[in-house]
Design goal:
Structural class of chain A: mainly alpha
Largest interface: A-B, 37 and 33 residues
Order of helices and strands of chain B: HEEEEEEEEHEEEEEEHHE
CATH topology of the largest domain in chain A: Cytochrome Bc1 Complex, Chain D, domain 2
CATH class of the largest domain in chain A: Mainly Alpha
Shape of chain A: globular
Strand content of chain A: under 5%
Oligomer: heterodimer
Shape of chain B: globular
Helix content of chain A: 25-40%
Helix content of chain B: 10-25%
Low-confidence stretches of chain B: 1-29
Number of strands of chain B: 15
CATH superfamily of the largest domain in chain A: Cytochrome c-like domain
């Protein structure tokens, strides 16, 4: 907890030189490719926010490019990538909802089948290590294969997806302009799609402006109190300005995990039963419902869970087993109210309303 | 705009490098002092050829089944001399699909000339290749071949889809074996006896004819490793049973039917 506070302070102290370096990097990279910095910046999310840790999926892995971004965006919103042509990635990951699916505990895929887990927000994926609540998917480019082929989601075999793209003259032209002539194959498809989802950077909330000391970025006294409580009681898991430690924890939702064993589904280790990836809290006020199965409809319910709803099990996180025998994180009514106020400062309206990220018209 | 033109050659170089690294089925020009070895696999069920036309087969305990799909990877081929020294052929990944005759043979090039008394191969894909950057996932390793678990990034090593028909009632058998993490790693190595000496010489292409027996998955090398079809659950993730099946096929699936040194 203290570590997280220190990290935030360090980030605040060092944000200016990092920002300059990041900007210089974009300019140099752009100049090297013979194009203007404006083009690079026209692709959303192509800069390192100064208060974020270093990228995992760096810009060099899939250099941002307006044409590839546009192609990825088209793919993301194309329902032809589902078996019956009714479901696109964007059906369950909505731009105005931080690419989550507000109001849906589980989202319907093809033929109204329900996906096994709540559709998570898609944001700041460049900073993620592993994907899915169980960490089963190893990289950003591979991630799209899971919902694409899952019978309860888009239910389209990869070979059929490629066949559909190759049968479309417009797509053939768009891919060829970027990757050269020849049939559209797995690498091009995954890289184009990855370029769009990698661009979904949320770093302009009121909280961000506050920690970056930007003009007019004051938080209310209640929000500041909430931030202090957050750092003291939540920040060990929801760490860094990404608000996740990118690790797996059992947060005491259940006593057994028969329906979904979480991380253990991937590792087959008893010690991983009931552990799930800590989600970011960015835009959290807009991404209800909550938890991997969408069981909590409101943030107030989430806080109530941590205060008095935590269930014991052998793998329950030590942070939820404080000395004294009472499970969970004790939060007074005032603390809960302050936390709720603070969490709304993580709403990033620039991100939620960025028309470049919405479905193309 | 220029950036797009730059990306093309970069991508082509990467793609070429990747396909070279991961091994195409095309014969590369042999280096001096090396020869090639051809492999051909005949897929069988006991004494019968494997067919997908509804032919009924029987396990050792008399249970009956028909087969709809049988696919697996062979990789990491290794050749052993009498003195115990080995040559590991780099970047060999071959997807054998029993329903696709052109997939059932392949040639390993650039094997150093010599007399080899043993051969071994992984039935599956090593963890390094299976976790590779998607850019490298082309050819036989392409996830589009439907031998890939998108939910737990990695290849399916062997896929058997069949129907148990014992007593007239049909019930599906879905057996997808994969996984590279302890304790349920299903990466296994088969080393069928050569019953002879493989003579690799420049300009020659000795041929190893293998048979691959579906029954080995159920019958296993010992009575304790026998798996009854009636108790056969749907296997679609790493598990103790998947590991048992992998051990069964490592031990008994492959037999060298003939070794031709021409």
């Amino acid at each position: 907890m203290r570590g997280s506070t220190q990290l935030r302070q360090r980030l605040r102290a060092h944000w200016r030189p990092v920002a300059l370096l990041a900007l210089a990097g974009v300019v140099v990279a752009s100049a090297g490719c013979g194009r203007t910095a404006e083009v690079a910046l026209a692709v959303p999310g192509a800069a390192q926010p100064s208060n974020f840790p270093a990228m995992v999926y760096g810009l060099d892995k899939n250099p941002p490019d307006a044409a590839t971004f546009a192609l990825g965006r088209r793919l993301f919103y194309d329902p032809r990538l589902s078996a019956d042509g009714t479901v696109s990635c964007g059906s369950c990951h909505r731009a105005a909802e931080a690419f989550a699916h507000t109001g849906h505990r589980l989202s319907p895929g093809v033929a109204g089948r329900l996906a096994p887990r709540n559709a998570p927000a898609l944001q700041n994926l460049r900073w993620r290590r592993g994907f899915m609540a169980d960490g089963g998917v190893l990289g950003l480019e591979l991630q799209a294969l899971a919902p694409l082929t899952s019978p309860a989601e888009m239910n389209l075999p990869l070979a059929e997806a490629l066949a559909r793209l190759n049968a479309d003259a417009g797509y053939r032209q768009q891919f060829a302009a970027i990757y050269g002539p020849g049939p559209i194959d797995t690498p091009q498809f995954l890289r184009a799609l990855a370029q769009f989802v990698a661009s979904l950077t949320s770093a302009n909330s009121r909280y961000d402006k506050y920690v970056r000391h930007e003009a007019g970025s004051a938080l209310s006294s209640q929000e500041v109190s909430g931030l202090a409580t957050f750092n003291a009681k939540c920040g060990s898991c929801h760490a860094t300005d990404l608000f996740t430690d990118e690790r797996f924890h059992n947060n005491g939702l259940d006593r057994t995990f028969a329906i979904d064993s979480g991380r253990a589904h991937i590792t087959s280790q008893a010690a991983d039963r009931g552990l799930f990836k800590v989600p970011s809290l960015r835009n959290v006020a807009r991404t209800a419902p909550y938890m991997h199965d969408g069981r909590f409809a409101t943030l107030a319910q989430v806080l109530a869970h941590y205060d008095h709803g935590v269930q014991p099990s052998p793998t329950l996180d030590p942070a939820l087993r404080p000395p004294g025998g009472r499970l969970g994180i004790a939060l007074s009514a005032a603390e809960q109210a302050n936390l709720l106020a603070f969490l709304t400062t993580l709403t990033d309206n620039d991100f939620l309303t960025d028309s470049r990220l919405a479905a193309p018209r | 705009m220029k950036n797009r033109r730059l990306l093309l050659p970069v991508f082509l170089v990467l793609a070429t490098a990747a396909s070279w690294l991961l091994g195409c089925k095309k014969d590369a020009a042999s280096e001096p002092g090396t020869g090639s070895v051809s492999f051909a696999v005949a897929n069988v069920v006991g004494t019968k050829a494997l067919a997908f036309d509804g032919t009924a087969y029987a396990t050792a305990s008399g249970e009956t089944f028909t087969v709809q799909k049988f696919k697996y990877y062979l990789s990491n081929l290794k050749f052993t001399k009498a003195d115990g020294s080995t040559y590991a052929a780099p970047s060999e990944y071959h997807l054998i699909d029993a329903a696709n005759p052109s997939s059932t043979s392949f040639t390993v090039s650039n094997v150093p000339a010599g007399d080899y008394t043993g051969v071994s191969f992984v039935v599956g894909v090593d963890s390094t290749a299976t976790k590779a950057d998607p850019l490298a996932l082309t050819g036989d390793l392409n996830p589009a071949n439907a031998m890939y678990w998108p939910w737990s990034s990695g290849h399916i090593f062997l896929k058997l889809e069949a129907t148990a028909t014992t007593g007239g009632a049909a019930s599906p058998i879905v057996c997808h074996v994969g996984g590279y993490r302890a304790p349920y790693s299903a990466i296994v190595t088969a080393s069928p006896a050569l019953n002879g000496t493989l003579l690799v010489r420049a300009g020659q292409a000795p041929k190893i004819q293998l048979s691959a027996d579906v029954l080995s998955l159920f019958d296993g090398p010992s009575p304790s490793s026998h798996i009854a079809l009636s108790a056969f659950p749907e296997i679609m993730m790493p598990s103790p049973l998947a590991v048992q099946i992998a051990r069964n096929y490592a031990a008994g699936m492959f037999t060298v039917k003939s070794l031709q040194n021409n």
